[in-house]
């Protein structure tokens, strides 16, 4: 199976990214952890950990 990243925001799934084609980078923005989801080098979602979550399945 290919690992997938499911990004939810306020309970709504906003992105599902395969590790074979995408990546999730966690960065700090003004002290708030932010997950940047890129797909083929294009950012498709930016999720704040205070409001969203990243689940690896």
Secondary structure elements and their pairing?
Layout: E1 4-9, E2 12-18, E3 22-29, E4 32-39, E5 42-48, E6 52-56
Q: Would you give an account of this structure?
A:
- The chain is mainly β and 57 residues long.
- The chain contains no helices and six strands.
- A hairpin with a 2-residue loop joins strand 1 and strand 2.
- It starts with a strand and ends with a strand.
Radius of gyration based on Cα positions:
11 Å
- Specify the number of helices: 0
Spatial strand arrangement across the major sheet: 2-1-6
> What's the number of domains?
1
Q: What general outline do the C-alpha atoms trace?
A: globular
Oligomer description: single chain
Percent of residues in β-strands: over 45%
- Tell me the series of helices and strands, N- to C-terminal: EEEEEE
Mean pLDDT comes to 63
**Helical percentage:** under 10%
- Alpha-beta content class: mainly beta
Poorly predicted spans: none
DSSP E strands, number: 6
Gap between N and C termini:
10 Å
Provide a short characterization of the protein structure.
With 57 residues, the chain is an all-beta fold. The chain contains no helices and 6 strands.
Task: List the defining traits of the structure above.
57 residues; mainly beta; three-stranded antiparallel sheet; 6 strands
């Amino acid at each position: 199976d290919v690992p997938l990243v499911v990004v939810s925001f306020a309970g709504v799934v906003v992105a599902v990214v395969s590790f074979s084609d995408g990546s999730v980078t966690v960065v700090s923005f003004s002290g708030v952890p932010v997950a940047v989801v890129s797909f083929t080098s294009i950012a498709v979602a930016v999720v704040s950990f205070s409001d969203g979550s990243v689940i690896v399945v």
